[in-house]
Amino acid sequence: MPRKSMAKQRREELLDAFERCIIKYGLEGTSLEQVADEAQMTRSIIRHYIGNRDDLVSALIDRLIRQYAEQLTENYADIPPEQMVSYAVDNMFSQKDALSVREKIIIDVLMTAKERYPDAKKKLIQMYDAVIQSFASDLERQYPNATQAQCWQIAYAVVCISEMNETFMWLGMNPRYHADARQVAENLLASLNS
Amino acid sequence: MPRKSMAKQRREELLDAFERCIIKYGLEGTSLEQVADEAQMTRSIIRHYIGNRDDLVSALIDRLIRQYAEQLTENYADIPPEQMVSYAVDNMFSQKDALSVREKIIIDVLMTAKERYPDAKKKLIQMYDAVIQSFASDLERQYPNATQAQCWQIAYAVVCISEMNETFMWLGMNPRYHADARQVAENLLASLNS
DNA sequence: TCGAATATTGTCAACTTTGACAATCTATAG
DNA sequence: CTATAGATTGTCAAAGTTGACAATATTCGA
């Protein structure tokens, strides 16, 4: 007899709105009222479905980490092992859609906010460790001649290039750098053959 | 007959305090009162020596960009041309002092805040362009066999590795990655010889 | 000593943000 | 139709933040 729950959808919409607000006004610069406006709801809706300010930030962090983890595991599920590396590189250097870029920037925001959100700090470290480890394992599989140490080195470097490049592109730097970044990354991988 | 001006010193102290607050509370999460407390002054002092909130942020941005520019030009002045590359690499992968790290993180904060501070955005792009161009020129000089395009590619990639690595180290990721990053960067430079 | 420029402190009203709670509305199963 | 769980809206007081300005204190040179 109860009315059907809107909780899931409302929470998603609110977190989406929150992310857009963070880009516009900053993490601490965003008021609950602004989030509500952005989502075309009232502030009390936030209170009802999520809670107070801390709850909102926690929910955002959890969703963000979860999305990244899913992106890492689910998308890879159907890829044959020998194509994993090229698939990963494609993923790292594709021109991202607006939503993915926004997520990446929110990640950057959270990184610089590690003092205030030690929970986010821990989860971000875990996430990036997992990304690097996963990529390094792919490299080991694809380049049996290379040492494990070499694969980890290259994996870390390529992730650094990819992440910083994405931030630079978002900032508005010369787009020709994008091809440079990818080219160097692929050269680094090729160097594992010898 | 006037009293001697404290303006220069006060402004520096206030901006230092502002930077520390940004790390603790975030760019928009920092109140003028907190900055004043951190600097052990009163809020009216900020008003007197710098102005309102916007003035404070502008002053911070200007000083940050200026400091980076000076670090780039002045330090290089006494370096003989053939040592510029190794000096630059040392600089990029040295374990930074706390103050330099803080500046780098504030830069990250400003990057993610580009929508609110288009002025900062423009200056950051210029700054990074200058850094990459300068490094690429050093590479061209040191590696005459390499093409210009190769030098720019490598310069951009090494800057990406260095910047992202610094952020990762600050975040608290495994310190052993630091050596990996530097090693890959130096291998990339060495590849310009062939 | 005195005057002038500057430092420093204090106070005020307007505005914003937040948390809490009350009250009303509405869809759905029985 | 009706009861009920949940959706949605509204209102308040408390606390925090800011901009503006008044007022006082201090130093330096003449």
Q: Can you tell me about this structure?
A:
Two copies of one chain form a homodimer. With 194 residues, chain A is mainly alpha-helical. Chain A is built from nine helices and no strands. In chain A, α1 packs across α6 (98-112), α2 crosses α3 (43-49) and α7 crosses α8 (148-171). The interface between A and B is large, with 49 and 49 residues. The structure holds a DNA duplex (30 and 30 nucleotides).
Shape of chain A: elongated
* Largest sheet descriptor of chain A: none
**Terminal CA distance of chain A:** 68 Å
Structural class per helix/strand content of chain A? mainly alpha
Largest interface, with Cβ-Cβ < 8 Å?
A-B, 49 and 49 residues
Rg calc of chain A: 19 Å
Order of helices and strands of chain A: HHHHHHHHH
Q: What's the total helix number of chain A?
A: 9
Count of extended strands of chain A: 0
Overall mean pLDDT of chain A: 95
Which percent range describes the beta-strand content of chain A? under 5%
What oligomeric arrangement do these chains adopt?
Answer: homodimer
Please bin the fraction of helical residues of chain A.
over 70%
Q: Ranges of chain A with pLDDT <50 over ≥5 residues? A: none
